[in-house]
Amino acid sequence: MVRQFIEVRGARQNNLKNIDVDIPRDKLTVITGVSGSGKSSLAFDVIYGEGQRRFLESLSTFAKSRMNQLKKPDVDFVFGLSPVIAIEQKKGIVNPRSTVGTMTDIYDFMKLLFASVGEACCPFCKHPVPTRSASQMIDHIRQLPQGTVLEVLAPIYKIYGEHYDTTFDEIRSKGFRAVRIDGESRNLGDPIELDEEAEYKIEVVIDKVIVQADAFKALAKTIENSLKLVGEGFIRFEIDRVPEGEEVDFERFYHDFACPEHHLTKGEMNANYFSFNDPDSACRTCGGIGTFMRAEARFLIKNPDKSINKGAIDPKLLGLSGGTWIWALVRSMAAHYGFSLDTPYAELPDPAKQLLMYGSKGEKFPFLPGEDASKSQTRHAGKLMNFGGMVHIINWWYKLYLKRNARSTIDDEFYKRVMIEHTCPDCEGRKLRPQRFCVQVGGSDLHQLCHCSLYELDDYLNGLTFASERVVVGQQIAAEIQSRVNLLLDIGLDYLSLGRRSDTISGGEAQRIRLSTQISSGLMGMLYVLDEPSIGLHARDSVRIIDTLKKLRDIGNTIIVVEHDMDTISSADYIIEIGPEPGALGGRIIAQGTAEQLQSHPDSITGSYMSGTSRINIPAKRRLPAGPMLSLRGARANNLRNVDLDVPLGVLVCVTGVSGSGKSTLINEVISKQLYANFHDARIIPGEHDELAGYEYLTGIINIDQSPIGRSSRSNPATYVGFFDKIRDLYAAAAAAAGKTLTKNDFSFNQKNGGRCENCQGEGTVTTQLQFMPDVESVCPVCHGSRFNEEILDVRIKDKHIAQVLEMSIGEAVGYFDDQPYILHKLKVLDQLGLGYLRLGQSSTTLSGGEAQRIKLATELSKIKRGSHNLYILDEPTTGLHLSDIQKLIDCLQQLVDAGHSVVVIEHQLDLIKVADHVIDMGPEGGNKGGMVVAAGTPEEVALMDGSWTGKYLREVLEAVGG
Asked: Which biological process terms from the Gene Ontology are attached to this UniProt entry (predicted)?
């Protein structure tokens, strides 16, 4: 019998109330409900968790012992499960090497395309160079007359920021003994002195052979080895001498075999030749990351009012004594260029500051050792030397430090103090060694293709042609790339590029990327569980994700989506609503059926919003931007097109636009980082812009996101909002009144050797690790889950000990602490935000993103000071929130503005946008077609503006509520 439903019976996970539910198979089912009602518990903890656990149980004991085992969810049974895949919105990718291209495997196909059909050019003159295997090179050399003397050479490139000696040491370590420098032969066994500031043409001498029959086999092996060791895949054959009586047509020999001018030939390539994760291909300076720490001159100055001799410069650099080489060089340079080291640094002329920080640029001066000079310094008295500059010295030190196996906390702190992250100065952010970009396909190199938008890449692939001998291979690889690119285009990610770092994309974008890889697999009979796939999508693009989900369903898969987006809910085959309230008051099935059935269901909160019975109303009166402005000029970061913008302060501002239009770049990368640099940390580098004026009207900047309020299970609302210390003070006072010698610290479950239960170390549970079974977590048998020892639990206030207080809900605690104004104020703010159901001691790891964000907002609301004017920035705060929760969020944001603060929200949710005082719409499209302000004004004004996608959909929403 084929099962028609996934049958869940007796689900009690987290706050679920022993629910039974049937979810239709091969359908698109949406699970919705207010934030914290138990949606994710049902979809991920029960259905996905049980499906994944059963799969892992089918593995061998050996395999299970090497994998993290999933705990069995608290459910009686689940029937009708298929192989299950969860596609969550969590980013979870912090590796700077991960990109959109590597996440989707498209970059692997790009590497294969370039290795298979790439056309090389000379690294010096860009003339096309044919690609040859070692055997093909030998076949060509056979044409030379017997007895011809041939020299085999390979170009060598100086390592960025290193001395020439380092380059020569590396060549020696690979077994080579001679080089040519600007055509002159030099033995690597002899000392070679070169001007470090000058450029030289250096080639390593690989071999010198006489063309004869018995030499070719050994020469082929030499060529193969040398192509791997030196030359970055390029090699040169120079005819040194021709036998008497023989003639060689040099032009004919090099024609179609090498560069006519430099005689370079390109060796065969494999895919790793283009891999920034391969040490032999990655940029030598940044190791394939694209960024590198560089010293910043302003951070080297410890006190500009002091002189160099009195400690103006960080002592870690110059040394505590005056007898170091750097001190001697600085003194010699000051004497030569005529400035005093006793003058305060701030009063030194600019040329002197440039000399100190960036060196003499190759100009030499006589070395003058000091009175306390060492013998080695005295020996060099009068010798002409140059000074590299303190910035360059630290950069060099840092490179040496990275090569060391041992790391030092002191050194780490020093480098973090004086250095900041920049685009790599060697590869300029391209991650690979420069010679890799001498290979092109269709006139473009790999970096260009990986940093254009996906719709531009699609256009490029459509127009790509191949040489006749490479058509079969090239078309096959290009087709694989194009099919994957089209999937990303179909789900609204056309503005991304393959080179975009994974840690810079949103959770919604990461989820849609993973979704595209599942579609490309073409599997059927699967169960997919998704968490809000509409996140980060403009109303214009939400239809794309709905169509994608339907495609997955139509090929024979079951789709379960946790979602709040009304368009997605309305498009579902079946809807399950959990509620009616969050937390302990939720966890029940309050409605299920089709969209039409929910709209007529009397208990369905979602149905009431779908039918229009409930709605978020437009404010009776909007605040007019009559106060000061934040004035941004010339913003050019990422895709921003020299944006000039005035952001009104003292009002609620929404920044909108289609995905990839530049909203987050404008607010997070430019405005937020510049303000953070002004108020907190000058080491923060904002996105490129000319000026940001008006920040003097602000007291500070606060970014409120949906990240967890704590990574540890010990973190909870009481500790985060900051009133648990006051509660501990009350219990310490009660203990003293009872004659007990207990302190405030004894009432902390984090304090070792205090009042916590040492058997469970204040966790309340004990975890037993089993070898190939999931860890078993049980209530601590000593404290019975209270987390404290008996002495602490004997202390009571109003007949409750501290463990019972932590188990109280916020709503209950409002009445319990009605005589404690400080605690009561913070509890009331939490309760007003709809968080009254949370327990004071509820672990932060059990909170949803929306709950965590509202706790952060409550923290800010509870400590508002008169006269302060902060700027609060929120990026898509409606993520994970039901429409009823969005109303609470809006009330909270309005409170912040009413208290004299400014709020800027990056948002797609139209119900939040329509209540804003001022809207800034970016666009008109995403990626290279965006980056401009297309509309600004009240929601009503933006709704009337042509060319604004947000305006188009906002107009429909305003008309629906009579706006």
From this structure: nucleotide-excision repair
27 and 573 in contact (C-beta within 8 Å)? yes
**How far is Cα 476 from Cα 791, in angstroms, rounded to an integer?**
74
Residues 6+ apart with CB under 8 A from 398: 293, 295, 415, 419
Q: What is the pLDDT of residue 772?
A: 56
| Residue 29: exposure state from Cβ atoms within 10 A (0-12, 13-18, ≥19) | buried
Tokens, residue 643: 């944006």
Torsion of CA 366, 367, 368, 369, to 10 degrees: -170
76: burial class by Cβ within 10 Å (0-12, 13-18, 19+)?
A: exposed
- Side-chain half-sphere of 339: how many Cα atoms within 13 Å? 22
Residue 803 has pLDDT above 60, yes or no: yes
Neighbours of 634 (CB within 10 A): 13
Question: What residues form DSSP beta bridges with 119?
Answer: 440
The residue among 101, 80, 103, 82 whose CA lies nearest residue 91 is 103
Terminal-residue alpha carbon distance, the chain = 55
Give me the chain's average pLDDT, please: 88
Contact 114, 190 (CB under 8 A): no
- Whole-angstrom distance, CA of residue 894 vs CA of residue 575: 32
For residue 636, the 8-state DSSP code is -
Report residue 619 as tokens: 């404010």
Strands 234-241 and 19-24: unpaired
**Closest among 930, 961, 889 to 654, alpha carbons compared:** 889
- The per-residue pLDDT for 11 is 96
E strands along 675-803, which residues?
691-693, 700-703, 765-768, 776-779
Bridge-based pairing state of the strands 149-156 and 574-579 = unpaired
Which one-letter DSSP state was computed for residue 18? S
User: Do 283 and 431 form a contact (C-beta atoms < 8 A)?
Assistant: yes
- The DSSP 8-state label assigned to residue 151 in this structure reads E
Q: What per-residue confidence (pLDDT) applies to 91?
A: 54
Which of the residue ranges 124-128, 245-249, 373-377 would you say has the lowest mean pLDDT? Answer: 373-377
Residues 6 or more apart whose CB falls under 8 angstroms from that of 644 comprise 632, 633, 634, 635
CA 618 to chain centre: 36
Cβ partners under 8 Å of residue 885, min gap 6: 34, 35, 834, 850
What's the pLDDT score for residue 327?
Answer: 84
Rounded distance between C-alpha atoms, residue 796 and residue 804, angstroms: 10
Distance CA(264)–CA(157), nearest Å, equals 14
User: Contact at 8 Å (CB) between 237 and 265?
Assistant: yes
For the stretch 865-890, pLDDT in tens is 667 899 999 988 888 788 888 888 89
Cα gap 827→710, rounded to integer Å? 19
- Could you tell me where the DSSP H helices lie in 287-419? 297-300, 315-318, 325-337, 350-358, 375-379, 390-403, 409-418
CB atoms within 10 A of CB 751: 15
Distances in Å between the Cα of 641 and the Cα atoms of 630, 662, 933 are 18, 10, 9
| Percent of residues in the chain assigned helix, strand, coil, to nearest 5 | 40, 20, 45
Contact predicate 440/274, CB 8 Å = no
Residue with tokens 């404010």: 619
Q: Which residues pair with 633 in a beta bridge?
A: 691
Query: Residue 41 carries which DSSP code?
Result: I
Which of the residue ranges 192-196, 201-205, 520-524, 680-684 has the most confident prediction, judged by mean pLDDT? 201-205
Residue 159 burial (C-beta neighbours within 10 Å; 0-12, 13-18, 19+): middle
